[in-house]
User: What shape does this take?
Amino acid sequence: MQLLRRFGPLGLLVILALAPFQLGDAIAIVRVLDLIAIYCLLALGLNVVTGFAGLLVLGYAAFYAVGAYTYAFFASAQFNIHWPFLLLLLLGGVLAAFFGLLLGIPVLRLRGDYLAIVTLGFGEIIRLFLNNLSSVTNGPQGISLIDTPDLFGYKLSTPTHIYYLLLALLALSVIFLRRLEVSRVGRAWAAIREDEGAARAMGVDTTRLKLMAFAIGASTAGLAGVVFAALQGFVSPESFTFWESILVLSMVVVGGIGSIPGVIVGAIALIGIPELLRQYSDYRLLAFGLLMILMMILRPGGIWPSRMVSAEMRAGHGNDSVEEAAPEEPVAPTAKGGN
Amino acid sequence: MDTILQQLINGVTVGSMYALIALGYTMVYGVLLLLNFAHGDLFMVGSYVAIAVLAFAGIAGGLGAAAIAGVILSLFLVSAFFVSGLGVAIEKVAYKPLRNSSRLAPMLSALGVSLVLENAAMLVAGRAPRVFPSEFFPAQIYTLFGATFSNHQVLILVVSAGLMAGLYYLVNHTILGLQIRAVAENRNTASLMGINIDRTISLVFIIGPALGAAAGVMFSMYYGVAFFTMGFTAGIKAFTAAVLGGIGNIPGAMVGGILLGLLETFGAGLLPIISGGLLTPEYKDIFAFLVLILVLIFRPMGLLGERIPMESMTWKRSF
Assistant: This one.
C-alpha cells in the first residue's frame, strides 16, 4: 500500500506516456486523448475556484476563450504576428489571470448564488464581445490558420507531440495544485469555503485569497486555451459557450468537487464515455443533466470525493454563517435582553 | 430611433413578460433560498406546450372574437397546468431531497434540471425554432399619438396586469398567501405554527411556473417563435429583474421586470448613438448582464429592498 502511494503517480505517468503507442497510435485516438487532457486542465482550474475556495463559477469558458484567442491573435494570419509558443503560453496564462481578477474584484462581496449568476453574465459578455467585435475577433467565423506551436525550434505538428506537452503541463499542474491544497493557502480556502464569516474572524484575508483563487483558476484555463488553439489551428466563439462552462462544471461536480484525482476522473469520464458512445451524442447534455441531479442527491461528493468536502456537504453548513444564527431577529435588536 | 412613446409601449410589453417570469424566481427564492435555474426553462416549456396544443387542435384562422378568446384562454390553462405539474414534480424529485444540505447542492441540481429540460425539449421538438401559428389571432395595428401598437401587445399588457394583480391579492390578502410569506420568513417557525411546509412549497411551485408558462405563451405569440434555448436568456433577464427589484420581494419583481424591459428597449435604441456606431443593438443582451452586475455591486438589496430579514447577498451587513 505504501509502495502504491509512493510510486503510484509516477507509474501512472509512465503508463499515460506510453498510452499513444499502446492504443495503436491512430490519430483519432490521440486527438481524443488530447481533448481529454485539455479538459483535465480545465477541470483542475475550475476545481481551484469552485472546489477549493467554494466559489461557484458558471462562466469559466470565458478564461478558456481568453487563452485561446490570445494565441490566435499573436500567432496567426489574423494580424500577421507570429510570436513563439512558450511566450504565448505564458501570456495566455497571465491575461487569463488578469481577466480572473477583473471578474473577482467586483464579486468579492457576493454570496454563492449571486456570485454564480454574475460569473455567468461575465462569461456571456465575453462571448458576446467575441462574437460581435468582428473587426478584431473575426466574429462567428473565428480565426483560422493558427500557427503550429514550436518548442525551441522543434515543431509540435502532430497530436502526439501535443499530447506529451499536455501531459507535462498536467503533471506540473497536479503537483503545483496538490502542494497548494495542503499549504496554508489551501487551508485558508477550505476555511472560506466552509464559513467565510468565521474565516475572516480568524484572520484569514478573504479578499486576497479569493482573488488568488480566481487568478489561479483562470490562468489554468488560459493555458488550456492556448494549447487548444494550437491543437485545433482554429478558434471561434462557438467553443466557448455557457454549455462549455457547464460541461467543465459537470466534470468537477461529478468527478469530485475539491478533489484533484476526482476532477481528472470526471474529465476522463465525461469526455471519454461520450466518445465511445458517439452515436448517442444528441443525448449527451441530457445525460449530463440527469447525472448532475443524481449525483447531488445520491453522492454529492462525486465519484472520487474529497473527504473534507463531502463531510461539509453532508453536514449542510454551506457557505453561510448568517443562516446558522437564524432564530434571532437581527433587525430588532431590542427584542430581548433590554437595551 | 422610434418615438419615446413607441419605445415605452414596447418596453412595457417586454417588461411585463420579464416580470411574470421574475415573480416565479422571486417566490421560489423566498421560500427555498434557491435560485431555480430551471425556471426559465419552464417558461420555454410553456411556449412549446402552447404550440403543441395549437398544432394538435388544428386551429386555423377566420375565427370570431369569442372563439379567439376561448382558444387563448385554453392555451393559458393547458400550458399552465402542464408546466405547474412539471414544476411540482421537479421540486419533489430534484430539490426536496436536498432541502437540508449545503447551498451548493440544490443549485447544481437546478442546473442539472435546466440541462434536462432544454435538451429534452430539443430532442422532442427538434433543434430548429418552432413557429407559433398565429393565424387564429391576426395582428391588428392601432395608432395612438404617432406610436403603433398591436392587439397582441394589448393582450400581453392586460393579461400580465391581471395576473400580477391576482398574485398580489393572493399573497397579501389570503390565508394561502400568509402561509407562503410565513414560510419565506422563517421555515422552522412557520412549521411550528402549524403550516404544512411541503404543501406551501408545492403551492409556490405551482404559482411560479404557471406565471412563467403564461409568459411563455404570450412571448411566442408576440414573437412568433419558440426555441429551446429561449429559457436561458429569459431566465437571466428575469433573474436580473428580480434582483433589480429586490430578490424575495414580490412587488419588486413586478417593478424590476417592467424597468428592465424599459431599460433594454431604450438602451438598444441608444446604444449606437452613445457608442458612436461601435455597438449595435445586438449588444442589448449585454445590457441585462451589466444591469445585473451593477445592481449587485452598488445596490444588492434591489430597489425595493429584500423582504427576507435573515438574508444578505453580501457579507457586509448594514447593522
Remarks:
- Confidence is low (pLDDT under 50) at residues 307-319 of chain B.
- The first helix of chain B runs from residue 4 to 32.
